Fold these 3 entries.
Entry 1:
Amino acid sequence: FSEDLHRWFNRKKPSFKEACGVPELPEGGSEEHLPLSQFTTVDREAIWAEVEKEPEKYLPRNELSEEDLPYYVDLPDRMAPGAPDSSEHTESADTSSGHTDSENTSTFSSPSHDPQELSHEENCCAPIPMGGRVYSKRSSLLAAFQPESFKSNTKLSLVRADSDKTQASESLSSDEEADLELQALTTSRLLKQQRERQETLEALFKHILLYLQPYDSRRVLYAFSVLEAVLKTNPKEFIEAVSRTSMDTSSTAHLNLISNLLARHQEALIGQSFYGKLQTQAPNVCPHSLLIELLTYLCLSFLRSYYPCYLKVCHRDILGNRDVQVKSVEVLIRIMTQLVSVAKSSEGKNVEFIHSLLQRCKVQEFVLLSLSASMYTSQKRYGLATAERGRALMEDSLFEESLINLGQDQIWSEHPLQIELLKLLQALIVLEHHLGQVQEEAENQPALSREWQKALNFQQAIGAMQYVQPHPLTSQGLLVSAVVRGLQPAYGYGMHPAWVSLVTHSLPYFGKSLGWTVTPFVVQICKNLDELVKQYESESVKLSISTTSKKENISPDYPLTLLEGLTTISHFCLLEQPNQNKKSAAISDPINLRNAKNAILEELPRIVNTMALLWNVLRKEETQKRPVDLLGATKGSSSVYFKTTKTIRQKILDFLNPLTAHLGVYLTAAVAAVWSRKKAQRHSKTKIIPVASASQLTLVDLICALNTLQTDTVLHLVKEVVKRPLHIKGDEKSPLMDIPVLQFCFAFVQRLPIPDLQEHFPSLLGVLKESVQLNLAPPGYFLLLSMLNDFITRTPNLESKKDQKDLQEITQKILEAVGNIAGSSLEQTSWLSRNLEVKAQPQVALEESDTEDNLPDAAGASAMVSASAPSVYSVQALSLLAEVLASLLDMVYRSDEKEKAVPLISRLLYYVFPYLRNHSAYNAPSFRAGAQLLSSLSGYAYTKRAWKKDVLELFLDPTFFQMDTSCVHWKSIIDHLLTHEKTMFKDLMNMQSSSLKLFSSFEQKAMLLKRQAFAVFSGELDQYHLYLPLIQGKLAVDLFCAARTGYLKLGSS
């Protein structure tokens, strides 16, 4: 039938051209070279004669190819041989190129309605909905595309399910029944998934119209160009004219002809014939009462019109149709932009008129569906380029998108249309805002019930994947979904500037959907910037994130575009906008802004991470040496995106600086969250305080570069975060941010020069005072002690006595907290006893421990140090005290204040000596750390009162020498013991073994001699030369006693 239709059109083409007075265009011509006279001569009588007589009948061909068959199954009985063609479009510009130019018909056949029942107010611009008799035909059409294997499998599963019901009496094993049920469930699930996808695509392509034959796109482009030129030069006057000019068929014969053609198009859209006698209509009745409505309808019709797959067209025809779609959107943009100016006048009549225009033509719905369909096309081409082509084609054949010829171009071939559609959406969003909200139906309901209903309706609209009346564009799930997916690589990088422009310019109008829309958009911006950094690090010119990027040219200012968009969106949602228009929908309801602010704050760690990555790239660009060309000029970056380092640096600072004033705590917490994720992969396991990685130092450099964050401000923010630590979003264990922020603070303090560090001592003291009172995890107190030690060792003595006293107080508190951690592996010997002993449990040596690996567990656990704390922390506490305690106390307490430190040392050693009394193998790590601590303390004479007695007892203990060679610190301990007490060495030499009552008669002298020898060994060279006669006499006596003991044993034997 279609071939008969084409032959009829080809035969009538000359007569149409003669009737219209339009000569055939040359092959390479363009619409710009068309003379205006070609569009002014119209033979209306010839057109009337052609459209009112029935087309000639041809006998159908006996055979149809299998390729063409499926497209005729769904044609209605009275399908027009030439459904709406380009005459519908060109006649609106007082043109007529005949009905051979273009044809439109709905992709989906409409139900069989009486044309008189179709109200032109409701269906003037939209395709008739699916349903009724024709829907079953379309289902049969889709079934024709399914592979035979799929049909047979479906039939088999149905038979098997039926057999389970009818043959229940058969004896089947439980395993067979389970297999049958599982197979039935699997088949049902697959069918359900396929049905859901089919319904989704049907909703996505329901607005599409199909041409039945090629048309001359150049003529339509010329007509649209004329309209666009008028809208450019005199937009206000033109819109006023077409808004006031009605389609009065009695006024002019030309309007009567347009009205008749429109009526025929309406007939064709519902499956009737375009030709022949029309049914009698009431006089002066036209589907579109005003010219502006007709113009809008024509633009939307061209926008959603495509060629079918079965129609043989060349690539030039597809490109021409795409140009027509783009041009139609450009005309719509100018129309809607001018209507915004009209709506701003706030005249009730104008507002109602524009409302009616948008509703009758369904402008928002068709624009959204067109954008979604175009994005789907880009995604499909991306999938064909990256996945198995055969599989994709097989899946597509099951759905109605296979009826549409979308072309075989690259992903970015859809970008011109999408860019214009985004501009049109932006104009429509502004227009809807100025038109005001639609009046609610139930205004007489209570306020609470009305608000609940509004919230429910919004949730339904924002989650729907089809257009929902009467909600505005910003509440449509189609738009939110498109925005969320807009920056993904599958849709092409060339669209990203357009998406950023749409979102940033529409921020004041998003209303309730502000947080829903911008938060995932911001996340995708960060992902794309992260990928640029990966490209730079891999030193590859081409992006590795997608196969399309290897062919797609990306603008060099791409990172600047994303940074500007990120800045605009974040500042709008996070900062107060005093200069904002108070009539703005988003500003008028603070709840919307608060929800969006909370959503953006949850993603602030991701944003800070992206800024740190970019900052690291800038640092590398500025520090690494670049080759010099022949003229002596330094060559720029190998990456085209990071050549302008100063500009990108300034963009980052412009983004972060305003956030510090009101959101400094959140920003610092975000820095801490990023810090915890950037720990070094390999670090020294002998370091109690983990060394900051290069990525973490980049964070410090970034914060130091913010001119709105002075040193006092940073330390104050750290204190606030430690007091009220936030949780990391999305982390499984959700650790607090107190430990990471202290690690950041320690690195920040280490970076400060000495004058600044001394100047900001009060701020640092505030951090230490506030933190030591909290229930921190053990690593937190280690960090406090390290920060305190760094400050004391790098700065001279404080002149103020008050500052010195405060420093001594905070030192005492921190050391006592660390001392409690050191004693966490001890327990009381009995309930009432104050004596402590080591728990009989394995201990982790410092060389075997991994502080950072244990940090999350420690940070998440209770900070109150108890006997159940891991032994790794007790060993680390002892080791840290051994490193810093002696020198720290020596500098904190002046020469005339040394005695004040002795009670503190005694309290600390109370947790140390129990480890030194235990010579068990499991206590070896603590024994070594305790010996090191005691060795460092004993070097200062003023401390001997705290340890002299206990050290001497340990030295004379029978198990003293039961230690490995790593405990060489005892050499210095004994040396300090004998050095600080002038008579101690002499007393040791003169000590009688019998008076000690430590050994048996023959072992006492040997053990005492061994300790006396170790005492000499512990001293320096020639340290005890003055006691040489005493030593020689002692040795002679011991040798004589030893020889005598040997003779007695020999004689008794």
Entry 2:
Amino acid sequence: MNDTAIPLRASSRLRVLIAALVSFLLVAAGAVVAAPAHAADGSVGASVTDASTSGVTVQVEASGLPDVAGAYAALIVKGTEGSISAGGGYAAFAMPFPSVSGGATSFTLTAPAGSLDRTQAYEVLVWQQHSNPDATTIYARGDVEITAEQWDAVFGVEPGTDPGTDPGTDPGTDPGTDPGTDPGTDPGTDPGTDPGTDPGTTPPASAALEVFLDDGTTPVADTVLQAGDTIVVKGSGYDPTANVGGRGAPIPANLPQGTYVVFGNFASNWQPSGGAASATRSVGAQGWALSESVLDQVPAQYQGAIRAQWVALADDGTFQATLTLKDAAATPGSYGVYTYGAGGVVNADQERSVALNYVIPPKIAISAALATAEPGITASVTGTGFGSATGVYAALIETGTEADVTAGGGFLAMQYVRGISGGAFGVDLTAPVDQLDRTKTYEVIVWKQHTMPNADTILARGAVAISDADWDVLFPVEVPTVETTVKTATAADGLTVTAAGSEMGTNPGAYVALIEAGTEAGVTAGGGFLAMKYVPRISFETFSVDLTTAAVTLDRTKTYEVIVWKQHTLPNADTILARSTVTITEAQWDALLGKKPEEPKPPVTPVTPPANVPGGSLRWAISSSFADYVTGPIAQGSISVSGGATRSGGQFQFGQSVGGDFDVATGVGSVVYRGSVRFTGHHGVLDITLSDPVIRVTSSNSATLFVSSGGSQVAFATLDLGNAVRTTANGAVSYTAAPAALTDAGRDRVLSGNSTRLNPVSFTIGSASAAPAGTSGTIAAASVTKKPTLPATPPSAEGIVIDEKNLAALGAGKAATVAAAGFQPNEEGIQVVVYSTPMLLETVKADATGVATWSGTLPASLEDGAHTLTLQGSVDRGLAFTLNRAATVIGACTVEGATLKWGYKESFRTYIEGIAKGGWTLTDVAYQYPDYVWESGAGSFDDKTLAGLVTFGGAIAFTGHEGALNTTLANARIELAGDTGFLVFDVTGTTQDGASVDQKGVRLAEFALADAAVVDGALSLDAVPTTLTAAGAAAFGTYAAGEALDPVTAVIPVNAECGSAAPAEGESDATAAVTAVSAPAAAEGAPVWPWIVGGLVVVALAAAGGVLIGRRSRTSGAAEVTTEV
């Protein structure tokens, strides 16, 4: 029972991987608070199948459960489900969660001996996942009978029956069963392991607390403090051996948890010993007082988090902590310094506090919009935290010009704000348009009344963000235009059109052409136009030219237009400056082509037309998938309807036109509709127009749909009328939801060889009619956000706040955390950029106070030397630092012969080979579907920190859209940075959206390393999911950050010394087994089971002696291979 515990021989990587698994389970499961389910009348049959000194194993068969996929199950003391908490309340928990099929499940529960009590009765409980067990969530329960013989097998013969095992009969004869005689398992009776019982050590006195200014000697007293100030906290009488227990993570529960040293805003009744909830304690800054000997025993994965706020707690119970003050998130009470037991431990003696005179400086929030009364900008200002002030001045000024402000000027708008109540106010400041300059920036300042604004009187200030859209309204951008008029129209001389251009801007010259409307894609230097002229010199942004074409080149059934485009280019969406439709009157057509003679018609027997035949129409989405593609992030295009067509509810609508010969009696014939739908994308490379659909019904079951495209009528789709709904009413025939299939001609002649799934077609054959009501013009367009350009040099080198430990970590290339204030509240898209050469690392979001925080590592490809880390958003903040990785000895292990497999993104490869009509060229890279494969990677790897860089080289050049897309990913690398890995490339060329790119060392994709392991001399990644980084999105230009990419597979061999177990050191019970259970949710009513499950994962692994890393001990004669679970 009380055999001396023997520590497992395993490196810190064991704890890393176990904790990673636990963390995943806790985060994923603990975030869910499910609504209670109705209890079911299920039944449980449970029987003990094994009993030994290790514990008992129970086989469970449950039935009558509800229709669910899985459930929670546990072995508990009978009737005690109400006492289950994050700290216990169960003897065993079913892992993995039992799966339920057909209302039944079968599983085993193994309870360690330490969780059992032979004096209690036990039962098995089965209940709803993600909930606490109660009358509304329990599915089934059943008793477990444990016999006396089975109890004896666990605990030995019951005390009192065997004098040799009775702890009261002979403490010196059976140390293995006498908890009072085993120094190896009872630290409470071993003077060498329990400083609290060592007669040579005097226990610390009662805890006491003192607070000083940053010099560490001047008492803080009533000194006014605010955010950014530094204080020194000195404590005494804090027992370093106290506070054992708690949640078990990050510090194992059998170690002292230490003491929180906190600056914050706490309620009057804040003490945990009084049962106060965590909501009564709002933390601004925190230190963690802990003995260094305890800290050294904390699992490796938690060391960094604790050391970032660690305060050394001496053996005599004293500590000294330095805290940088910042506002607490909430204000339940008063600001001060507080101490209390860490890790969930309650210790009333360490609950101490010192009140501080902390003030929160005033703040303003600003939103800018177009003024309503007159042209200009109105800045709406909301002020908070202005204390007892009854009035202030507020002004809208050019940024940084407060020194010019006087009573009579120096501002764009100013208000004297009176009657401030509760320290809050709101005011609107309007700047007229004639005082604004788009090239300048503006801000609002608020200062003390009856003073001038300066550093001593300004209470708050904030930038005014004016959107580009608002600037465009105030200062409209001149857009080139062209006006066309018919100058002459005769059969002999042809048609002459005068084209007058204006607002041509800085364009020195342009091409002007008369073309059939919409056919600019066919224009070349040698044709595709009716007339063209080159305007070599544009004076004062205007020009006027005449374009003449022979009458025989014209067709009165078509429409013509004049286009103007940039010289030395071909016309497309990016180069066309202006276009205008040419209006030709009927009289002018007659003059050109003569009057069209009426065709004689054979006599027909008059038929009385049906009265009030409904109007005909065609309603068709064409292809939803194609439309989504056109307006998506790849094509970045738009859809427009014209010529009488409309769109409503996702359907393109065409009215019935004259013509057609559909016979209602026979049910066959054709019907003509009018209108056009145009799809454009890829900056003009994709340009497809479908016009004037015609449906020719050939039988009761089939029809063909024709469209006009490129000047020709094309059989675009076949219609299955047999599977459509046919109705007739008042002489009109309707077909609803007729399945449509794309023809080969439609694919090749209209869609440029690209296949797509067509939507069903609905149409009515009736009388000539306009299209049903809907939207016309541009009805859909891609939302394209222009990527910001990174400044070539750091915009700022100051303003980022970082403590010494994080600065040292940053300089060593390790994980670090930085923060900066002054951004807009909740501002998004703040770019984290490192220089010398600008390299985008990530984008972050500011909190409600405008503070932006970034945690991460610098790219391994960043060279040692002087650099600047910046946060760029509405304001810029920076930090100059020196990178010196050499001092950290990164890459202790040599890597050779590594392999990498990654397909980038399957849908992108399909797109390249399909719509883009492109491909890829490989250099020192192979393609083995579905992956690109790199071999012979070499570099370095640190087994302890899981950091390293492996370089593969090679290049993949993607091309498409006739060269519009030409992007190369070169010099492939795998960068490992602790719990995160990156795929790093040099990205050059032209992106899909037409932008040029030349960026080195881009962290293109990232992946998690939580379950990575060094096994048999190699670190292996097996189909690990990857996502596009913010830096990758900026460089590659096709997808947004966070887009799922193909999984990565890699094998990284390391040399023989890497992954070897260190010589076994004598570990105490405090480090032999760790129960890593994260803190349960603080909100009342949140379920505790996700946290319990996480704890049981570790308990199960520790009990079984299993580990996640396969290693071979090099210190013993025989190979010792650990079990992989």
Entry 3:
Amino acid sequence: MSSPSDYTVGWICALTIEGVAATAFLDQKLEAPASQAKNDANNYKYGKVKDHNVVIAVLPKGEYGNSPATRVANDLSRSFPNIRIGLLVGVGGGAPSPKHDIRLGDVVVSIPKGGQSGLLRTAVASLEIDHMMDGNGLESMITEVLDQNPRLMEQFGRPPNSTDILFQPTFKHSKGDSCRLCKPTPDNVIEREPRKNEKSLIHFGTIASANTLNDVLCFEMEAAGLMNGFPCLVIRGICDYSDSHKNKLWQGSAAMAAAAYAKQITSLIRHEELAQETKLCEIQTQINEIARTAEDVRSQQEKEEQFEILTWLSQADFGQQQSENLRKWQQGTLQWLLESHQYQKWIREKGEILFCPGIPGAGKTVATSAVIQDLTQRFPGGTDIGIAFIYCSYTERNNQHTTGLLASILKQLCQFRNAIPDDLKELYIEHRKQGTRLQYKQIVRVLKSQFGVYLRVMVVVDALDEWQRPPDDAFNILDELLSLHNESRINHFVTSRFVPTISNRFQNYPSLPILASQSDISEYISNYNWSSSSLVYENPGLQEQIKSYISQASEGMFLLAQFYLRSLEDKTTPRELTDALKLYQDRADRKENDQNFDMLAEAYDEVMDRINRRNANFRRRAHQVLSWVCYAERQLYVKELQAAIAVKENQVEVDELDLCPINLLLSACCGIVVISEASETVQLVHYTAQDYFLDRKGQWFPHGQSYLAKQCINYLSLQKFQDDLPDPVNDVVQIWTKDPLDRIALFQYAALNWGHHVRNAEDTPKAIAPIGETDVSRATITLSEVDQAVLNFLSCKDKINLALSIHLYTIQDSTLVGEDFKANALHMAAFFGLDRVIPSLLTGVKINSQDSNRRTALGWASKAGWITTVHLLLSLNADVDALDFYGRTPLFEATESNHFEIVNLLIERGADIHVVAFNGNTALHYAAESNRGKIAHLLLDKGAKFDISNMFGQVPINIAVRNGSRSVYNRLFKMGVNPRSCGVDGRTILMEAAMAKNEDLVKELLKQGVNLNSQDYQNRTALMEACRAGNQKIVEVLLQHDAKPDIQDCKGPTALMKASHQGDESITALLLKKGANQHIVDHDGSTTLMHACERGSGRIVRLLLQNGADPEVVSHSGLTALECAIIGFDELSIKLLLEHGGHMDVVSQLFEGESPKLSDHGAALFEAFEEGCSSEVLQLLMERGQSKSPGWHNGLPFLKALEDGHEIIIPLMRDSGVDLINCSKETGFNYWLEVESCGVKAENFVHVVTWVLFAGW
């Protein structure tokens, strides 16, 4: 047995995967020393590398005592006082550059500088010479180790070189923990020459933390900057690149490469030389720093995981809005709200709602921010009171979906306790694999469970009146909030304008109107900054006069007081100022007599008068800014707005010298335009300003759309784009993914929206000479200045294809976007509905010219819905039945886009309604889908054939039934469609009705005598479809009409199996009651019980067992129900099956590692423990499996159980004769280090450790 003083090399790893690689490269494994320092809680591996005794320490992932990572180094030096050098070995992120061709699987070595590091520097230099002469030999070393340890091959083998992708710095990572969604293209990948010799190269240089930038080769977080004066060699295998992209695929291989080099360097150092190095314990300070940094790494990794899950859950961040609104709160105000008995009662009692309506401009949003601030101060994070808040906004009305808002509430509650609930983690893992997001029901379920964590949950919702249901939102946020209140007694604080539809919903709850008090407004005025007005600043008497007048004239509106104060800044004499104050008081008096008088509108009128009285430059800038803010299709970022105003006709590019400072632009607008810190966009100061300009923008900016149109065209026509983008279409993704604040800031907006502004331009056309052939246009053509600019723009093909490609990339039209997609000026004009310029474009373009997908201008206009454009094109002899690449005509485009008037027009102009596209669809197939019933009736009126099957065997009536188009399928029945008919796929109307959960139609079809047991091409029946859809009522109806429950589909499952697999307990019970045979096996030999076990449906497993299910059946692949339950990780199912008895042999096979199912799926029993099986279940497993003497593999489940803190099974292990000492090649305690120990808490296994040590492990 070795002595602690025998060990001279300390090998430190931060991650378990690094520790496994290090252990694999030991020449010989040694037993643990007989003793080590008292209270040393470290986990070690012991061995020899050539003549040196090496101790490997892996930093703990959990918490054990105080600062476990710091103790690694402390205890290492205490227990092994003779250690002379340290090796910090693991993985890191590479920093490739033109100078350094660093690739995944390479090794970066950073040697210490100065101090007592001569031995290491000498060894590195010597080894480098050997490598230059004979090659580095890493690959052969790794191959040898993997051959000796085949179990490591899957995780530690080298991945294919094709997975080593270095993206361009400008190409940002997509969401998720892998790069599955980051599709490599020639434009976003840096191409590198294949290596001729070795796969992995070794680089020497700086390994740095993120704040070191000079010639860095590798970034990591454990020891950057700690090598000076300390003989520690840092060796990093490159597992990913230090960019936004993530790649865990190479971690194992990179760890192996680093460990191989570490072994080489250790083997090169002679024993006698090492004895001359300073002992590690003599330089404890540096060691402690390493350990502390590694602890930070561990903590950072946990934070990154939590951040990743929460970001996936919801990207909404109302925190910035809270900070922004809170800065507007004048301390000392709103005490009447915070001290009111209504508010105090809302805080104290669970399940309270406080509704706070208010007039526009009263300060509801600032009041909300004060409430949130009060709550967070009363109940700081980590308490039993949960807090979440939502700021509804008219500017985000199309993005604030109900599901997203509920997800944001859940996210905030998780952040409040700094913990992710297990059920949310499970959903994250499940959805991450599929690249999907949480569904509404899943969010509500997790949200309700999270409510139970807190004594009370306070949800604050501001400006509920500004929330408008997006077109694709199936839910209403007010309904959901009240539902959560009723079910979980959530406390809601809600503000809104006086909107009857909202106020009526809260009429039975406490209410506290928000109206700025005179004292609050006086306090606000007292703290107003008059430094810009020397007239007021130097006259305290005027300040008091202003306070007296405005506090009364503001009518409880902070916004109005703000406007009044701003307007006084321009006054130059006391009389001008007092006259203004009297005007404000007159308005207040008028409001008293006329409640319809709009004081805010008067204030906005005054602001516009102030703007128009300013000098020409300021006035022009203000009108430009307000035109963009009022007419833009979306809010602009600051740089976008600056570029939009700066660009001029025939300009080469827009650079910083052309941009007007944003502060000057805002100042020109006299406070009516602001920057939202939350969204970093430019917007109007208040939603009331939005309402004001919605009614009056035509008055103030009569040529706003024309101005925006010309500026967009000017920007797209910059010479920069022609010089920098020789192949515009192929660069579309790269352009689109650029940061919106870079030097092509407005490009994205202009490419998407220039046509919309042109179409809505207000310029009056002027007469010019005819353009084009005489048979195209005999009348004089009139073009405005904007139209002429459009023609100039469309004369350049590169500009057309670049702008169009950006647009199509954004809307993701799969029928248009392609790597070589091309279109012409006429297609572009038709796409945007630019009727005025289309005739002039026909000079060099034929009316029926096709884009690269063979779509004509008429097809574009029909798809976009521009009926006047369709009229125009038809009058110019456009082919009404032109076929595109998919065999679709313009009629298909209009039908699919649900443009009834265009469909009608095309039919009137002779469109063939019987055309069959290449996929077998007719226009009627598309019209049969939901929300297109009016078009379907029109097509049927015109004689459309309704018996044509598409390539999938579907006929129109099947599509109509599946999509719930009631009027369409009723019409088809009246026209003679046989209820018993089916498509060539064998799908009956009854099947579609069952799948669509259409109970009324199912009953009607059964009355007409349809064959309810008919089978489609996959042998499925209507009963199976009803089970899949989860509609119990339809299942009952079908069974009442003698549907056969035991029919099997093409793969063997019955209706009962489908219901069990869906997890529908009620339908399963119904089928069993009606005599469904649960003993039938599918083509794989699986029973209904196995389907339920794999699905993880414990309640259904109980139901099946109660009805006589046989758990002993073995499938064709050798699986039992118990094994299926373990695969499904369902604790209830496992427990039920074990309690049912008769599983002794099966459990023993699991312990022995002989289960064919587990080997097929790469699972083992300890993986079930990893999913959270309770000690009770583990105890049952052991009791059932203790008859066989466990072999080597029994170490896996037992050690994993210990690791997770299941000390209850320790006596059972001892009593069952488990060989704790010989359950692996090492002692049990050492083997414990080999299994992953992420998340282990000291409080969970301290008793286990005590017992294990006592037992001599």
